Amino acid sequence: MQLLKRMAALLLVTVILGGCTGKPDNIEPVTNFDLNKYLGTWYEIARLDHSFERGLSNIQATYRLKSDGTVSVVNRGWNTEEKQWAQAVGKAKFVTTSDIAHLKVSFFGPFYGSYVVFYLADDYSLALVTSYNKDYFWMLSRTKTISKDKLDHALEIAQKAGFDTSKFIYPKQTDNPLL
């Protein structure tokens, strides 16, 4: 529970201070985006460090379309210290149009943060995501692990986009988080 409170507080401060539905310079969201192909569960392969994810393994995000046209967002990870799942539930909306992968996500009422998919594999198996600035980065996959070739390709794209890939964290993804 403590971790969820920290996650909520950090995201709230980030949103308030950042204005946060913009995107970093030189980052462009994917166009011809198909939300229906993006929906479902994604596994976190790599990220930049943030206190709201520290101590978590088996991190995943699940996106579902709601009847009102918004997207339900459920982020969860296994808290290795507390030996329990930590979860944050939010909603997402498109910033402009539904064919541009630039959304705004809220976990706290009217406060939104930017969610920019700037790379997406043709088969929707791998995504690179940032927020309103380059302090945020996530590499997401439909599978818990990816091949070295796929990882190297994603790291090259991230580096060309201006991310310091030497600072990436690779959370553990296992079938049994107790191991």
UniProtKB/TrEMBL annotation:
Domain named Lipocalin/cytosolic fatty-acid binding: residues: 33-173
Domain of life: Bacteria
Any Gene Ontology CC annotation: cell outer membrane
Coiled coil: none
Alphabetical list of CDD domains matching this protein: lipocalin_Blc-like (cd19438)
Xref: SUPFAM superfamilies: Lipocalins (SSF50814)
Record-level Gene Ontology MF annotations: lipid binding
BP term (GO), one: response to stress
InterPro entries (alphabetical): Calycin (IPR012674), Lipocalin_ApoD (IPR022271), Lipocalin_bac (IPR002446), Lipocalin_Blc-like_dom (IPR047202), Lipocalin_CS (IPR022272), Lipocln_cytosolic_FA-bd_dom (IPR000566)
Residues anchoring lipid (N-palmitoyl cysteine): 20
The entry's keywords: Cell outer membrane, Lipid-binding, Lipoprotein, Membrane, Palmitate, Signal
Oligomeric and partner information: Homodimer.
Family that this chain belongs to: Belongs to the calycin superfamily. Lipocalin family.
Role, per record: Involved in the storage or transport of lipids necessary for membrane maintenance under stressful conditions. Displays a binding preference for lysophospholipids.
PANTHER family referenced in this protein's UniProt entry, alphabetically: APOLIPOPROTEIN D
Protein name, as recorded: Outer membrane lipoprotein Blc
